[in-house]
Amino acid sequence: MVIFSVYVVNKAGGLIYQYDNYVPRAEAEKTFSYPLDLVLKHHDEKVIVSFGQRDGIRGIKFIVLADPRQSGIDALLRKIYEVYSDFALKNPFYSLEMPIRCELFDQNLKSALEVAEKAGNFGAGS
Q: Which helix (H) or strand (E) holds 113?
């Protein structure tokens, strides 16, 4: 199974963390003009969006883009919240609402994503 991306959005709606776990090769260079001309193409693989919000940190949203066959997204969101609490919030150099720039957060998030992908789900025992 595939987990494509993880995003953390603050209560003001600003993106404070982005991790692209699976990046397909781009066949052509992408350029943008204003206003953005977006074209969505349907592929045989679908992407689902799961929103997670924990009550301990009001307003912070954890978003996971994953393959629809990926199970255990809710458990993965809980694990991401745990990693955020342990490695971002407890970091004395991190300020709330600011972008997350913590190497331990990155490492533990990648580890959680690897476990979730290999298992096809993310059990409570992990």
A: helix 103-119
